Sequence to fold (186 residues):
Amino acid sequence: MRFTKNQLRQKGVTLIEIVLILGIIAILSSIILPNYKDARAQFALERSAHKLAQDIRRAAEMALSSSECPADTTCVGTVPPRYGIYISLSEAILFADTNPPVGMYTPGDDLIEELDIEQEVFIKNINVGSPPKTSITFEPPAPTVKIKWDNDGDDGTSVMITLALKSNQLKTKTVTVNKAGLVNVE
Fold:
């Protein structure tokens, strides 16, 4: 089969078509790339909030199952009276509550794990006393939940921990824990 010159020319791509395609790709890229960075940060916030909620549930589960202290703690091989999470604006800790005051993290308690929060995220606020810090402990067998923000105060009925993006502090997620041990992410 033989092609004429006009037929051969029609099979190629013109320079105008190439420029048009490159222009469309450039426009789509300029729309997608800025949203990609924002979406990645939003996912980091979501992951951090859900991980914190999961760590609080893990402390409750450890108390409910009467788990023994891990090998790298001083209470190894024993079941502590309570497991808990301590949260301040600068740190979050999973601990075995072995020292008085009951239900409040103190330096004498056994540190099980320092909890990580993603780099793009920080703890913005805790709706408790000043300075904002709280301990949430779970005591078996029920488990009984104690929410404390100082050594002398009464137990709180709930705590709200707000996480925010470092790049945009208006974007937040809140982890709420109530006296019944219900953990919710909003």
